Amino acid sequence: MPRTRTAPPAQGPVRLGPDARAALRPAVAGIDAGFWHLRREVNARTSIPQGPGLLESAGNLHNLRLAAGTAEGEHQGAYPFVDTDVYKWLEAASWQLAQRTPADDGPEVPPLAAEVDRIIALVAGAQQPDGYLNTWFQIRQGGERYRDLRWGHELYCAGHLIQAAVAHHRATGRDELLDVARRFADHLDSVFGLPGSGRPIDGVDGHPEVETALVELYRETGERRYLDLAGYFVDRYGHGLLGGEAYCQDRVPLREAATVEGHAVRQLYLLAAATDLATETGDAELRSAAERLWQAMTATKTHLTGGLGAHHDAEDFGDPYELPNERAYCETCAAIASVQWSWRMALLTGEARYGDLIERTLYNGFLAGVSLDGERWLYVNPLQVRDGHTDTGGDQSARRTRWFRCACCPPNVMRLLAGLEHYLSSSDERGLQIHQYVTGRYRGDLGSAPVVVRAETDYPWHGAVSLTVEETPDDRPWTLSLRIPQWCREYRVRRGTRMYDQTDAPVTEGWLRLEGTWAPGDQVVLELGLEPRLTVADPRVDAVRGCVAIERGPLVYCLEQVDHPGGGLDDLVIDTTRPLAVKHRPDLLGGVTTVVAAGHRRQLPDGGWWPYRSTEATPGTAPEAGEPVELTAIPYYAWANRQNGSMRVWLPRS
Amino acid sequence: MPRTRTAPPAQGPVRLGPDARAALRPAVAGIDAGFWHLRREVNARTSIPQGPGLLESAGNLHNLRLAAGTAEGEHQGAYPFVDTDVYKWLEAASWQLAQRTPADDGPEVPPLAAEVDRIIALVAGAQQPDGYLNTWFQIRQGGERYRDLRWGHELYCAGHLIQAAVAHHRATGRDELLDVARRFADHLDSVFGLPGSGRPIDGVDGHPEVETALVELYRETGERRYLDLAGYFVDRYGHGLLGGEAYCQDRVPLREAATVEGHAVRQLYLLAAATDLATETGDAELRSAAERLWQAMTATKTHLTGGLGAHHDAEDFGDPYELPNERAYCETCAAIASVQWSWRMALLTGEARYGDLIERTLYNGFLAGVSLDGERWLYVNPLQVRDGHTDTGGDQSARRTRWFRCACCPPNVMRLLAGLEHYLSSSDERGLQIHQYVTGRYRGDLGSAPVVVRAETDYPWHGAVSLTVEETPDDRPWTLSLRIPQWCREYRVRRGTRMYDQTDAPVTEGWLRLEGTWAPGDQVVLELGLEPRLTVADPRVDAVRGCVAIERGPLVYCLEQVDHPGGGLDDLVIDTTRPLAVKHRPDLLGGVTTVVAAGHRRQLPDGGWWPYRSTEATPGTAPEAGEPVELTAIPYYAWANRQNGSMRVWLPRS
Fold it and tell me: N or C of chain A: less Cβ packing under 10 Å?
């Protein structure tokens, strides 16, 4: 099939509608070198090209052929949402197609565009005449539909299909997949609605996801009824239609909720949709709820890595300040959902703190989910693996895995990495806002005039970001807004030949705002201080009492056993009175900056058979003797890439 | 049906066979007043009598009628092991029948003996001609058997039936239920065995339990093949017959295991059986494995309360020193299984430390499982409920519940309480060993001569135990061995008119041994020091770093929110430099001794939206200001008997 790309402007996962009440509009930051470029190259050259083969092996593509009647056999996979692995891969591949496609260069894998066409054809072939599409229910359940909205994931699957279709349309201008998605959405719109609406079912899906997808479909097509349907779904959670469980977001309506609760990914997708709705409709109550819940989440339920979800058994948020290390769930998908939601909040409000959480999440809780070679994955992202850990294997293993029985995370990582340039900058009529620093070109729009700023940086390894104005209206002042990260204690900025420090270029609510008229070639150099630092938690975070974490810039660090021969990690302590040292290690883990700290290995008393002792039996707080040990901390995102062993982020202080 | 009690000697849950290689033999300690008598009165007057009504409401008895063909309808209950709720109740009621039966006195409930007869008839009626009995498979699975040993619980159910039958036979001398159990055991013996044994199935149950029951059946009947079948089962775990999962005890053979792992109750029942086998057969390798695993468990995987199991999702042990507070699983059944196993270890080895763990578990992790009124239960027993806790309800709620969907714990509590007098003392040819202190009569057997010692004590509220010899051979010296609890720092003992302190009456491996000839009326008074104490954990227990727990005697204490008005618990700290005070409170929680400590309420910094801070932003360790607060600690077993709210065992020190 010839590739008939109509070359629309590259547009990302969030495109605001014409009436959106957002403070900012998304801009694009073409990434062409540096930290994220390397990660995206691996995504483009390894992860995405390997997708179709893995989807074939796991049976996902076979299921589509079964539904189309072009193959025979049993439906494969353990869950009713296996189709979404295909959709998320299609979305990832579509964002990839919108760029240079390195996978096309390689001889071993079929060119990406042809693979996308092939798989879209499989999807289209599986769709039923009335628009319904779910291979699990079509094949295993004899076509029975919507009988088990709590667990069936039919609308969840529709949501990922719609997102893939919107991505494909935005990336290629082509309609094949969008037509499939619209048929499904039209079908849903004929089935779901309030009592009295003429629709037969008043219900929501146990896993929110279709809501934010429907808003994007509205944005892509201009069809208002998709937005209305999204609004109906969002407001029907919390009314007991799913049995009233927090797990399914059904315990309390979002508008009344005091904090985030239940299954983390479900909560976050629902909040992304609520933010989309507030953005498109100006619903102040929804906006207020989203702001309140974001505050409650980040202040009391977020791990240092940006990871979310404290419990394994229901993949859910815990109580406030319940942030375990070894049992941190921090599902990779929850990190992705958090970025998606925070980005919507950043656009809606214009506030910099959302970019702070996005940065923290991207560099830590998200990026740890994929191996450096792009071939192995983590579903859960603990902050500690104990000495003597017995790994249970399976999806929730603390060891990287080639693919999962529930393979939601890998293609989700692929789609975020492939579309990453759309989460980094924004613009409004007054100027360009840079939320995240990369090497590339930030392209904003002042309403009537484009602005283009070229950026060069070795961030996060070095703190200097060199910005050069390439396109600007020559007669109109505008503001270049630079997010000064929340972790940053010292910065300075050079504008032309003049240097400002933080006294004469102060930050306002996270933004350093440089106003004025600009000419091509104008240069700004931002220097963010990257001294490594020790971090402590709110005293109510019981899990890390008496501990510190090492951080540098946006990176959270951890110790791995492999760097500390001669013992485990759980008897090490850090000496916080000694300075931290930085070592650039181009040889290590694809090139990282390590942080070296002084510590020692505690001599632990022989506890006999009982590990608890009266304080009178162990009086005072005599310093623990022990062999001095040099502690080598690596960035958390790079852990579990060498050998199995223990790991820890939070270190007891001596 | 007339009650034809043949009045055998009261015999408990563990009766050793004639060839047993145990260091000690179980003795009986008739409890007639004091702490445990009160708890057992509630068990006898409330919990056990309410059992049949609850089993009727939940459908368990209906299921038996269905299987017998004497009722119509659907099988009730969510699990294939619902029959065991009936069996465990029958076991509890049988141990109760062996004693004074206060329930017979009340007018509202049917006399217990008649209830037992009625329910045994239901069980017998449901049994199939070849001995098989499981209502789930007989009714729901169309009689299909042993197709899903991993999840089916058919042998697990058989085990509880056998234990109930042995209890009924020992308590009443009657055969009705024992005949049912023997038919089932004979059936199992015809079905399960090694390849080549002529039995059709080489397999084990996903939930160990039948093994220890079969050993008891051997002990009760003298039939060696039941012991052999138990040995076959124990040794077939760990060979992949169940898929090789640690959860089902199938990852590694017990003889090779380095530590406890997997589902806690499964592990503990299996270890109880292994200990039984080592006891009856002299298998040194099994004994060694049991000793090794007990050591590993207590030293690294036991909560301060004796609770076991660190994870909710698989009800399993965690890694070494992974002992969370708010997510401590500590299933009530695991505490019971731990007592059962440790008692077997105590008899096998003669060592006192097993009694130490039994005491700790009984007074804390076990007893917390039932409310003071005997009507509500905890399945999980956390060591912390956070301020702002959102309770999910269900079986794993931190709120007491009337009955569970999986109602394994309540009748398990009933059977341990009803048979408790059999876990407290032992004897051998050289004397009587008192493992636990109660008011009552310890009746031992020196081989040829009985010894009876009367005990009076207000333990654990007061430390004095007055012991009077009532029966003794007059010409033969023997040793009265008293376990000096591992927590005890000071004790003294008066023998006749002479007082000894710990210098002149030293403890040898936990035992204070008083040798000599005795005459009726001879008196010994043991005084155990009960000064309240602060306890710390091994530094590797990350969950409680910088915290202390309050203990007094065998009791672990906790704070409850209801005693600390004006705020939550998570911002309180304890001042460990100030003395602890003891207050006896006969009005509170059925009469408890509280411990009062000095503390204060921390003034926490406003964390804004992010709960982590650089140490440079919060330099030094300036003392936290805050309002002084008197901390009132209650015994952990009594928590959750007043109102919902937060609770904590481990308290941050100021």
Answer: N
